[in-house]
Write a structure and sequence with these properties.
Strand content: 25-35%
CATH class of the largest domain: Alpha Beta
Order of helices and strands: EHEEEEEHHEHHEHEEHEEEEHEEHH
Strand order of the largest sheet: 14-13-12-15-16
Largest sheet: 5 strands, antiparallel
Shape: globular
Number of strands: 16
CATH topology of the largest domain: Rossmann fold
Length: 305
C-alpha cells in the first residue's frame, strides 16, 4: 500500500513528530510511505484535466493520503489541495469539508448544538455593546473568551471580570468573539478522546500546569491514563460523526451536569497520549488508512489522463 502523509508545516520547518512517526510505522508494516509538504503542491486549472503538481511534476500515485492540517487562518484556501485530491479521486482523510467544520469553532458549535451534543453555554457577539448580555447568558464571570479559529490553546483566554473582558477585546483585528461559560468543576482538567473510524482507540486525562487553566500539552499540560464512561464515549463518537471526521481528538470536560464537548480537533496530536498511556495510536491510524484505501479506491485515473 502507498500511504502519503500531507503535512502543512512550513517548508522551512521539519515535519511534526506525529507525521514522522506515521511514516515510520507505515514502513515498519511493509507499506511505502512518504511525507508530502502542502507548500510544494501546485494546483492546475486549464480546462484539460483535474491536476495537482508536486514540485512541478504530476502528484505521485498514492493509495491514500492522511491529512495533517496544522493551520489556523484562511483554512479553506490553505487546504485547497485536499479538495483537489478529492476531485481527482484520491482517498483522503480527514476530508476538506470536515476539516473546515472542525477548524471553525462556530461551525462546530452550530453542528453539535443541532445534534443535541452537550457543549458549554456559548454566545457569539460582534459588538461590544452586547458584552453584558453575553456574560449573563453564560452564567456570569469568570468566562472563557475565544476567537472562531485557533488550536493548541491559541485564542483562548479566561476573563475574571466584565471590566477585564472589555479591556482584552480587540475589535479592529477580530470582529467576532465567542463568550463561553467557565466550567469550574473541571479544575483545569479535560479528557482527550482519540477516535478513528468510528471507534475510541485511546483516552488521556490532561491536567494544566500550575497557574494555567488550559490543559493543552503544548502549554505544559501533563497527560495520564483515564477510563471514560459509556456516556463520555457515546458523546465523543457523536461529536466526531456530527463533523463527519474520519479521525479526531475530542476534548471533554466533566461538569456537574455531565460531560460536555469543549472542542473537536481534525489534526489531533498523539505523541503525549502514546507516551502517557502506552496506546499505539500511529499503528491504529495506519491500519485504518489501509482499510480506508481499500474501500475508497478511485474509479478513474487520479492523474486525469
Amino acid at each position: 500500500m502507498r500511504i502519503g502523509i500531507l503535512s502543512f508545516k512550513a517548508i522551512s520547518k521539519k515535519a511534526s513528530p506525529e507525521e514522522i512517526r506515521l511514516k515510520n510505522v507505515a514502513k515498519e508494516m511493509g507499506h511505502t510511505a512518504r511525507i508530502f509538504r502542502s507548500g510544494r503542491c501546485q494546483l492546475v486549472y486549464d480546462a484539460t484535466a483535474r491536476r495537482l503538481l508536486y514540485d512541478g511534476r504530476p502528484f505521485p500515485r498514492y493509495d491514500v493520503i492522511i491529512t495533517r492540517p496544522s493551520i489556523l487562518r484562511d483554512v479553506d484556501l490553505n487546504i485547497s489541495m485536499i479538495k483537489q485530491m478529492e476531485m481527482m479521486g484520491i482517498p483522503v482523510f480527514n476530508r476538506y469539508t470536515s476539516i473546515i467544520r472542525a477548524k471553525n469553532k462556530l461551525k462546530s458549535m452550530q453542528l453539535m448544538d443541532h445534534y443535541n451534543i452537550p457543549i458549554p453555554k456559548t454566545i457569539i457577539i460582534r459588538s461590544s455593546k452586547f458584552l453584558d448580555l453575553a456574560v449573563e447568558a453564560v452564567g456570569g464571570v469568570p468566562v472563557i473568551l475565544k476567537t472562531p479559529f485557533g488550536s493548541y490553546g491559541a485564542g483562548v483566554t479566561i476573563v475574571e471580570s466584565k471590566r477585564g473582558l472589555k479591556s482584552v477585546l480587540d475589535w479592529e483585528n477580530t470582529n467576532m468573539y465567542m463568550i463561553q461559560e467557565f466550567v469550574k468543576y473541571s479544575r483545569g482538567k479535560d479528557i482527550r478522546v482519540f477516535v478513528i473510524g468510528g471507534k475510541v482507540v485511546g483516552t488521556m486525562m490532561r491536567s494544566a500546569r500550575r497557574g494555567e487553566f488550559r490543559s493543552n500539552i503544548e502549554l505544559g499540560g501533563k497527560g495520564s491514563p483515564v477510563e471514560i464512561t459509556e456516556e463520555e464515549k457515546e458523546i465523543s463518537l457523536r461529536a466526531v460523526q456530527a463533523l463527519d471526521l474520519e479521525y479526531a481528538g475530542v476534548d471533554l470536560l466533566r461538569s456537574k451536569s455531565g460531560p460536555v464537548v469543549l472542542e473537536v480537533n481534525s489534526n489531533p496530536g498523539f505523541k503525549a497520549l502514546e507516551s502517557s498511556t502506552g496506546v499505539d495510536i500511529a499503528n491504529s491510524i495506519v491500519e485504518y488508512a489501509v482499510e480506508y484505501a481499500k474501500s475508497n479506491a478511485p474509479m478513474f485515473d487520479t492523474n486525469g489522463d
